[in-house]
Amino acid sequence: GDRHEIWLNPALLSDNKFEIRYEIRETDHQERLISQALTHHVCINPVSRQRQPFPQEVLDWLTQWSQPNI
Q: DSSP assignment of 17-46, as one string?
């Protein structure tokens, strides 16, 4: 089968929301975009179901892996 690469680009949107942009590209021809997607993630308190700030570990992960927009 064809070989593909999946690129992820997380971005912090607020103290309780981030997004991940996904791109699927051909491995041998990275200029060929096959598919793209966007997901939003929100941190909530499991009891009150109200939004709350992300834990430091999540903020650290976002800082480590966030890149300029694709």
A: EEEEEEEEEESS-TT-EEEEEEEEEE-B-T
Residue type for 46, please? P
Task: Single out the residue of 67, 22, 69 nearest to residue 41, CA to CA.
Answer: 22
Q: What is the pLDDT of residues 12-40, one digit of tens each?
A: 999 999 999 999 999 988 889 999 999 99
In the block, residue with structure tokens 């607020």: 14
pLDDT at 70 over 70: no
Element (H, E) at 6: strand 4-14
Place of tokens 């997004």: 19
The fraction of the chain above a pLDDT of 70, given in percent, is: 96
Tokens of residue 24, six digits: 């699927």
- Euclidean distance between CA atoms 21 and 40, whole angstroms: 9
